[in-house]
Amino acid sequence: MDNYFTIIVLASEHELPSQIIDYKYAKYLFTGVGMVNAAIALVKELQHNHPNSVRVLNIGTCFGISHAKPGTILQMHEVNYDIEPDLVNITKYRLVPFIPSVINNKLISGNKFVTPENYLNLSNPNVDACDMEAFAIAEVCHQFAVPLKVVKVVSDSMLHPLSPLAWKDTLAQLHESIKNEIDIQLRLDDYYIPSPVQ
Known about the structure:
26% strand; 3 helices; Rossmann fold; alpha/beta; ten-stranded mixed β-sheet
């Protein structure tokens, strides 16, 4: 899409194959793992290096809760913050317009690696998947009024758990799916400014 310049936000370069495509109207931003790193990197990018018409594609891996099969691709409709709701004013963002009849994929972001043993410790375990960056990215995009889309690929899940050390080894199997999904999402228009939900 030539009308927008797309910032493709990933936590790690390990989530892409070594040979990546250079796009004329897009660039990669590797933020580092975790919400603080993601927020700092994206704010710096938006403040200093972006053209007027910019949008963000956050793509990467996640831990699947309701989606057990690794390799499943999920476009997220809502992202939650892994903290008790009474501790912060905003704990979730809508990423797409709400349509009652459509199944909504819900993601929760926190600063810990989620496993089958600890997922019930999440502030809201009734979600579809968990990651470590998307809420912070949604917060930054909301503050800057930048359209966002969040797409995640399940790397491990309740039925197919991984240790943190095994995560990088599994990524090689997902490289092609992530690369293909980037190509698809860059051609689409359905990016929206995140809207806070109290």
